[in-house]
Amino acid sequence: MVRGWLLRLLRNNTTFTVRYEFEYTRHESVSELSAEDAALVALAFEAAERAYAPHSGFGVGAAVRLVSGRMEWATNQESEVFPSGMCAERVLLYGCQTRLSEEPIEVIAVASADGAGECPPCGACRQVLLDTERRQGRPIRVLMCSRTTITEVPSAACLLPFGFELPSEAELKK
Ligand SMILES: [Zn+2]
């Protein structure tokens, strides 16, 4: 679900321009969040303190709340072989997919240990968020947090227009 809308501006018979838009919410303080979301954000910051990020020094925590209200968290993990590390969001999403795949994710909060700036997911994590959202058939709200402000998008799809999707078997047979 993308709460955006498309505006087609016809140029000629075959070429047109499409404007992609979506709405997001900017919270100027954690106190503007619901108690449940505030607890999730606090958990993401707690998680960030436990990150394993000796190379970058940039600890990140991610926390999800499932539809049951259960919360799970994870941190980024770095490796001696640099590309083998992984972001907190993907560590968390893969863990949830492994152990809790029957229960949809309602919302994810992402925060860095220093909390100086909001912490938007990288491109790879956006794709995996989108994969997860498609698989569970319902949107995942994303809370990108600093210590003071939070930007909230209503669906991971908002963060990745033109996300990759494997063609279905039917499409491959065409
Ligand atoms: Zn990432």
What does this protein look like?
The protein is α+β, with helices and mostly antiparallel strands and 174 residues long. The protein has one domain (25-160): Cytidine Deaminase, domain 2, CATH 3.40.140.10. It has helices at residues 35-48, 88-99, 123-136, 169-173; strands at residues 5-10, 16-21, 25-27, 60-66, 71-75, 105-112, 141-145, 150-153. Strands 3-8-7-6-4-5 form a six-stranded mixed beta sheet. Helix 3 links the parallel strand 6 and strand 7. The longest helix has 14 residues, at 35-48. The protein starts with a strand and ends with a helix. The model is unreliable at 1-6 (pLDDT under 50). It binds zinc ion. Zinc ion (ZN) binds at residues 87, 89, 121-122, 124-125.
Number of helices: 4
How many extended strands? 8
Strand pairing plus helix content: what structural class?
alpha+beta
Which shape, going by the Cα principal axes?
globular
Assigned CATH superfamily: Cytidine Deaminase, domain 2
Evaluate the radius of gyration. Answer: 18 Å
CATH architecture label? 3-Layer(aba) Sandwich
Mean pLDDT: 92
Describe what is shown at a glance:
The chain has 174 residues and is an alpha+beta fold. It has four helices and eight strands.
Write the layout of secondary structure elements.
Blueprint: E1 5-10, E2 16-21, E3 25-27, H1 35-48, E4 60-66, E5 71-75, H2 88-99, E6 105-112, H3 123-136, E7 141-145, E8 150-153, H4 169-173
Parallel strand pairs: 6-7
Antiparallel strand pairs: 1-2, 3-8, 4-5, 4-6, 7-8
The structure holds zinc ion.
